[in-house]
Amino acid sequence: DLQICQHRAPTCCTKKMEESYQAAVRRERAQSIQALNFELKYMIVAHITAFQEAFESLLRFAENRTSSLFETAYRPMAKEAAEPVKELFTDISLYILGAETTVESAVLRFFDSLFPLVYSRLINPGITDLSEDYTECLRLTRQDINPFGHYSKNMVTELSKSLWPSRMLSQALSLGIEVINSTEHAALSKECSRALVRMQYCPHCQGLTLIRPCVGYCLNVMRGCLASVSELDVQWREFISTLEYLANEMAASHELETALAGIWSSINEAILHAQLNGPQLSATVDKVCGQPKQQEGNLSSANIVPVKEVPETQTFVMAHTSLNNKRREFINYMKRSRTFYASIAERLCDGDLVMRDSSTCWNGEDVV
Q1: What's the CA gap between 338 and 336, in Å, rounded?
Q2: What pairs with residue 294 in β-bridges?
Q3: Residue 356, in any domain of the structure
Q4: Nearest alpha-carbon partner for 95 in 188, 174, 176, 159
């Protein structure tokens, strides 16, 4: 009553043993594919973590640098500006990690929050009544009167160009993990599990427990079983090429590191622009939002303090170098995995499964 290991010679197998063998080959094949995938998946996960740590390090540096700008040059509004600054860098971090947000919305939201502070603490430092309604009016007016000139738009443009490859790379790495996970659980067809039993266990039914499959026979069986997985080869090669492209984009002229490090400078230029145009802004705001209560006395606007370029610190240089090195290492590793799905049958037939250095092997019917 054997269905798979039928042979003219006497056999020591039963139908029930054949069923056990089918369960065994399914389990073994899943474990073999998992073992092959493990290194690749481990490397991708490790690099996702390493990239995120490097991103976070750069973001923290840029955020600290921006906070120190307010504490040194714009002390009257430093305390109130802390929350908008924190929100800006949180939004940038979420964008890089793939959240449904845009760089433009993050930057403009920041400048919406910043304008009431600049207006009431620097341009008109005598304002005492900064009610919710008046603050909201200032926020909405910012969109119409554009107090920060072209600096806010330039910041959007520069950051969008620089952050986009990082966001895409982050999403691509997550996609790579999904692809690998899906291949681990690819179901074996009935024909495939029968072919694997015939290859690995049918010799046992004749007491030939030490004979292993011939190399060519193993490759034929594995290629048949893994046809659906090996079809991923073309897409996987394209995926690796895309990773290379994104990594090159990250290292190109619009560098993430440079853009993040320059945020404080863009904000500083924007604030200086608003201060220089203070009288015109005040006239427009008074028409739109009304005149707020002022302190008695002659309070001139705060002195404009130009801030010089802060020299590159060791922290930034280390984070910059770290990100570049991780990028290079990762792409070199992924390039080596370009043929991963094309060669999966060969890799499964490698090692202990087949007979390599012997004159005899099993061809599915007999010992040859």
Answers
A1: 6
A2: 127
A3: no
A4: 159
What's this model's pTM, rounded to 2 decimal places? Answer: 0.75
DSSP letters, 35-96, are HHHHHHHHHHHHHHHHHHHHHHHHHHHHHHHHHHHHHHH-HHHHHHHHHHHHHHHHHHHHHH
Backbone torsions φ then ψ of 362, nearest 5 degrees: -95, 130
Residue 297 belongs to a domain: no
Residues of the chain with pLDDT under 70: 128-129, 252-254, 293-320, 355-357
Structure confidence at residue 243 (pLDDT): 87
CA distances from 84 to 104, 110, 117, 274 (A): 15, 6, 10, 18
* 290 three-state secondary structure: coil
What does the alpha-carbon distance between residue 335 and residue 332 come to, in Å, rounded to a whole number?
Answer: 5
Cα gap 30→184, rounded to integer Å: 6
pLDDT digits (tens, 9 = 90+) for 200-229: 999 988 888 888 899 899 999 999 998 888
pLDDT, position 317: 64
Contacts of 260 (CB under 8 A, 6+ apart): 58, 59, 61, 62, 92, 162
- 358 in any annotated domain: no
Q: Is residue 175 part of a domain?
A: yes
**Residue ranges making up the domain that contains 44:** 15-291+314-349
The phi, psi pair for 113, rounded to 5°, reads -75, -30
Q: Quick one: pLDDT at residue 24?
A: 93
Residue 170's Cβ-side half-sphere holds a number of Cα atoms within 13 Å equal to: 19
Q: Distances in Å between the alpha carbon of 244 and those of 122, 168, 320?
A: 47, 12, 19
Domains held by the chain: number: 1
